[in-house]
Automatic annotation (TrEMBL):
<comment type="pathway">
    <text>Carbohydrate metabolism; tricarboxylic acid cycle; isocitrate from oxaloacetate: step 1/2.</text>
</comment>
<dbReference type="InterPro" id="IPR010953">
    <property type="entry name" value="Citrate_synthase_typ-I"/>
</dbReference>
<dbReference type="InterPro" id="IPR016143">
    <property type="entry name" value="Citrate_synth-like_sm_a-sub"/>
</dbReference>
<dbReference type="GO" id="GO:0006099">
    <property type="term" value="P:tricarboxylic acid cycle"/>
</dbReference>
<dbReference type="InterPro" id="IPR016142">
    <property type="entry name" value="Citrate_synth-like_lrg_a-sub"/>
</dbReference>
<feature type="active site">
    <location>
        <position position="307"/>
    </location>
</feature>
<dbReference type="InterPro" id="IPR036969">
    <property type="entry name" value="Citrate_synthase_sf"/>
</dbReference>
<dbReference type="InterPro" id="IPR019810">
    <property type="entry name" value="Citrate_synthase_AS"/>
</dbReference>
<dbReference type="GO" id="GO:0005737">
    <property type="term" value="C:cytoplasm"/>
</dbReference>
<feature type="active site">
    <location>
        <position position="364"/>
    </location>
</feature>
<dbReference type="InterPro" id="IPR024176">
    <property type="entry name" value="Citrate_synthase_bac-typ"/>
</dbReference>
<comment type="similarity">
    <text>Belongs to the citrate synthase family.</text>
</comment>
<keyword id="KW-0012">Acyltransferase</keyword>
<dbReference type="GO" id="GO:0036440">
    <property type="term" value="F:citrate synthase activity"/>
</dbReference>
<dbReference type="Pfam" id="PF00285">
    <property type="entry name" value="Citrate_synt"/>
</dbReference>
<keyword id="KW-0808">Transferase</keyword>
<keyword id="KW-0816">Tricarboxylic acid cycle</keyword>
Length: 429
């Protein structure tokens, strides 16, 4: 017998079904509330609203837990690879040997974009932000794959769409970088793995080929695994919203990239480094910035701190912080920015303002320090986040479009504007 909750409105009792998830998360199903009572719920920014039921990721914000298809991220970072985690998120299970080989071969096979697209990049000014280029290019990619745009896709076509985008988005990102530095575009090499090929496309020049480095490859693999999915965050919810109109995956991903760009979301990793560098340049230490972040009189926030769901240390930040030390030591880099980040973390975590509001470092706080050590330019940091989040966005789109009960997302509102009024001719206003 399904449990219900009773809602008393003006003496009329409405029974609403209660739902419980695999890990004990509880919800009130209000799907019939308006039809029964004429009332809707109001929850700006959806802080208390579940948009869907999903089997992809589980977050326990109170415990600081993140699992992909039930497997803890720490175990995946230690034992898996970004390509294998992409398969796990998208297809729901760890691939067998043959499945994995075939998946990697298909992704590698789709590494070329139409040669005509190269001229699109040179039409942008050199200072164009790569997130603007990436979102435009992902949507533009669709014109070369008309066979993959129909609203109802066979499983095979859906897999084709997925492997095309998994493979090509990193090519578009690397080409956007090459355009920004005025260097020739570089194509993938068959002997390199997915992420080593991305770094090869970014950093190989005619004078010096990119030399894979196992410590760097592992650190990048871990970074991408940690960014791969995060249930119903702003950009993933955007992908699901766009996908719910039966728009194609190219359009949905392009929209997700735009949502991620914001400094409150994926754009925070760029904002963190800019904040740390201004602290370093000011020479005034971290206390002034901690005080500014507490001062309601200004808009300054400690970028890379706080989270809508995590009320504990973001488990991803803890792992990234460990790899920060490892990568900088391996490269012999003594970056004062890392010490400033640690000092800022220490100052905040012992300050009542942050303790009371349960504000801890999030995934964006340390990631930029590693990207900087890998010589990735600051304006490419959010592109790195987008490349990591790609399999998660794809997994959620696939879960949505394969749901036989899928409906177009269309929230309601509470109207607060003028009551009915007549049109006034301009000479009477
Ligand atoms: C990501 O959702 C996801 O899963 C996202 C993500 C993913 O993987 O997809 O995890 C990736 O986007 C991480 C977040 C990156 N953004 C930042 O680091 C930007 C800085 N952080 C804040 O803007 C903020 O913490 C948010 C946006 C992350 C969360 O905002 P909420 O949940 O709306 O919290 P809030 O703004 O209501 O803050 C609650 C209180 C407020 O103070 P009071 O009004 O109660 O006095 O905490 C304060 C806020 O002013 N606060 C901060 C702060 N974050 C919150 N004060 C100073 N510095 C901060 N960073």
């Amino acid at each position: 017998m399904n449990k219900t909750a009773k809602l008393d409105i003006d003496g009329h009792i409405y029974e609403l079904p209660l739902i419980e998830g695999t890990e004990g998360e509880k919800a009130l199903d209000v799907g019939r509330l308006r039809a029964q009572s004429g009332y809707i719920t109001l929850d700006p920014a959806f802080a208390n609203t579940g948009a869907c039921q999903s089997a992809i990721s589980f977050i326990d914000g109170e415990l600081g837990t993140l699992r992909y298809r039930g497997i803890d991220i720490a175990e995946l970072c230690e034992k898996s690879t970004f390509m294998e985690v992409s398969y796990l998120l998208i297809y729901g299970h760890l691939p067998g040997e043959e499945e994995y080989t075939r998946f990697k071969e298909k992704v590698h096979h789709h590494s070329l974009i139409h040669e005509d697209m190269k001229s699109f990049f040179t039409s942008y000014p050199g200072h164009a932000h790569p997130m603007a280029i990436l979102s435009a290019m992902v949507c533009s990619l669709s014109v070369y794959h008309p066979e993959l745009l129909q609203p109802e896709q066979s499983d095979e076509d859906r897999d084709q769409t997925i492997t095309h985008l998994l493979s090509k988005v990193r090519v578009l990102a690397a080409f956007a970088y090459k355009r920004s530095v005025g260097e020739a575009f570089v194509y993938t090499r068959p002997e390199l793995d997915y992420l080593s090929n991305f770094m090869h496309m970014m950093f190989t020049t005619p004078m010096r080929p990119f030399e894979p480095d196992e410590v760097i490859r592992k650190a990048l693999d871990v970074l991408f695994i940690l960014h791969a999915d995060h249930e119903q965050n702003c950009s993933t919810s955007t992908v699901r919203m766009v996908g719910s109109s039966k728009a194609n995956l190219f359009a949905a991903l392009s929209a997700g990239i735009c949502a991620l760009w914001g400094p409150l979301h994926g754009g925070a990793n760029q904002a963190v480094i800019e904040m740390l560098e201004s602290i370093h340049a000011s020479g005034s230490g971290t206390k002034r910035y901690v005080d500014m972040a507490k001062d309601k009189g200004n808009h300054f926030k400690l970028m890379g701190f706080g989270h809508r769901v995590y009320k504990k240390y973001d488990p991803r930040a803890a792992i990234i912080k460990k790899y920060c030390d490892q990568v900088l030591n391996h490269l012999g880099i003594d970056n004062p920015i890392l010490e400033i980040a640690k000092e800022l973390e220490e100052a905040a975590l012992t300050d009542d303002y942050f303790i009371e509001r349960q504000l801890y470092p999030n995934v964006d706080f340390y990631s930029g320090i590693i990207y900087r050590a890998l010589k990735i330019p600051t304006n490419m940091f959010t592109v790195m986040f987008a490349l990591g989040r790609l399999p998660g966005w794809i997994a959620h789109w696939k879960e949505l479009v394969e749901d036989p009960g899928m409906k177009i997302a269309r929230p309601r509102q509470i109207y607060t504007g003028s009551r009915e009024q007549q049109y006034l001719p301009i000479d009477e206003r």
